[in-house]
Design a protein that fits this description.
Aminopeptidase, globular, alpha+beta, 32% helix, eight-stranded mixed beta sheet
């Protein structure tokens, strides 16, 4: 178990590798985002617009790297090296043994595959077993029903709604649905997610 919750290390699952994102990932980031209308769908509930050029992806990654309260990962398929999206730890609190998982997007062609489930299994294993977290949190837009359903399928518990929690890209106030998972719940969730991933094989 590590004592450095901000340690930038690669994380591996059965078929997916998560590596700390850098500007070297920009071209692949842009390619995975796709073109409209696909990219609009992927980025609909995110706080940045879809990248149109590689330079846009570089700017997004620079902003991510400048956020000291966030550890962002590039998600890649081990078999091909294909960049399939990003996910992050944020609100990282070693003092309270708590961390949030989010800022996640997956390339449209990999929706309804094993990618998101395996990614979350990797992240949760890191949080509970690598960091010794007591609590993992998710936040999602109240309008993003697809995300809420995905988080619930992970086994997280809905805690409530944070009103006017953040600003959307269009400037409107966002109500945020908050979910959590506790360390005591992790063993059952781990077994459930592992079984679900095995169904894709």
């Amino acid at each position: 178990m590590t004592t450095d919750w901000f340690e930038r290390v690669a994380l591996r699952g059965p078929t997916l590798t998560l590596t700390p994102i850098t500007r070297a990932d920009a071209a692949d980031y842009r390619a995975a985002a796709g073109d409209p209308p696909e990219s609009d769908e992927v980025f609909r509930h995110l706080r940045q617009a879809p990248p149109v050029q590689v330079a846009d992806a570089e700017r997004i990654i620079e902003e991510i790297e400048a956020d000291r309260d966030r550890l962002a990962y590039a998600q890649r398929l081990q078999a091909t090296g294909e960049f399939v999206g990003t996910t992050s730890f944020y609100e990282i609190s070693p003092q309270w043994r708590s961390v949030a998982i989010g800022h996640t997007w997956v390339a449209r062609r990999h929706w309804r595959t094993r990618v998101n489930t395996e990614s979350k299994l990797i992240m949760l294993t890191r949080a509970f077993e690598g960091l010794g977290a007591e609590r993992v949190v998710w936040h999602t837009d109240i309008l993003n029903l697809r995300s809420q359903q995905a988080i619930e399928r992970l086994g997280a518990q809905r805690e409530g709604v944070l009103r006017h929690h953040r600003l959307r890209l269009d400037g409107s106030w966002r109500d945020t649905v908050q979910f959590s998972m506790l360390a005591a719940e992790w063993p059952a969730v781990r077994a459930q997610l592992t079984a679900r991933i095995e169904q894709y094989q």
